[in-house]
Design goal:
The chain has 97 residues and is of the alpha+beta class. The protein has 2 helices and 4 strands. The protein folds into 2 domains: 35 residues; 62 residues, no CATH class. 11% of the residues are buried.
Length: 97
Amino acid sequence: MMKKTIIFLSCELILLFALSFWWVSAQTDYFSKGKVPILHIYGDKIVYTSDRNLDVYLLEADCRRRGGKFNRCGSVCPSDAEVCPSICAYTCELIKK
């Protein structure tokens, strides 16, 4: 009985490791090819995505590289929009120089 439990737990650990490796490699591959998801670039901000499954660290790094301030729940619309849906998106508020 104990031997079956050890084998079962070992299989679960291997599966968990394989899935973790696949997820990390998929995220790394996506961003390493320069495919940071950008929905729109406005004059004062960049709207990345509203997909909460992406690695936020990479989006923050892209925003820092651009000299902006990262926002985890920014608006998807330009600043001067009269009407805008209330959707949280990862955005980069660009700092004017």
